[in-house]
Amino acid sequence: MEAVEKIRARTDALYALGLDHTASSDDIRNAWRKIAFSAHPDRADNDCSDFVRAKDAYDLLRQEGLTTKNPMHGKPKRPKLRKRVIRLKDTEVSACRDLLARALAHSGNIAPTDDGDQIVADSDHIPSAIECFGRNLIYFVKSPVCKGANRVALPTSVLVGFRKTETEVLNFQSKNAGAGEVVVPDAIMARKFPGAKSVRIRFDADQALQDAFELAS
Q1: Are 90 and 133 contacting, i.e. CB atoms less than 8 angstroms apart?
Q2: Which pTM does this prediction carry?
Q3: Contact 74, 55 (CB under 8 A)
Q4: C-alpha angle 104/110/111, rounded to 5°?
Q5: To bridge 51 with a disulfide, which of 39, 208, 210, 217 should be the other Cys (CB 3.0-4.6 Å)?
Q6: Cα–Cα distance between 141 and 144 in angstroms, integer?
Q7: Per-residue pLDDT tens digits for 62-109
């Protein structure tokens, strides 16, 4: 299992117990005891699905050394991270485009084309790839920033593998046009990007820039 996959598995396991990446060993044990008691088949009309899911999550975290507070065991060894660039699937790009199109249609600033597709404004952006380095994300957008109001639609559940793809539209203002980078504020990141430590968006990121990042990984 690669480093990023291990981190994702831990994140998924913590989420299954109702926790996030800040949870302590005490938090994990207490969450497991609570779920084991309330979701036990004897108390859930013989439905063991929640119990089994929580037990599998707890077992994974225990194997990773995240449930013990015995200093003899020390902290779990952090997996060595490496960068990777994920090319967005056609379905993900379409989901982003559809979300922007629906929002523009509500505002009256969009009209269908002859072939039934919808026009996305120049100030609206869709990424083509995502660089992942642990829980740090960089979205690559080929289009340049427009002066004034801009919007970008992003797949936000990159680090949470068991969830379906979710897409959000972020709004921002730019004083200049062209290449640039936007850093997603912590408050928005915590709500919209589960599991992420930092999120940046690079605009006017052509294929050469994306390849450079990939070669440096």
Answers
A1: no
A2: 0.57
A3: no
A4: 140
A5: 39
A6: 8
A7: 888 888 865 444 455 555 667 788 888 888 888 898 888 887 655 544
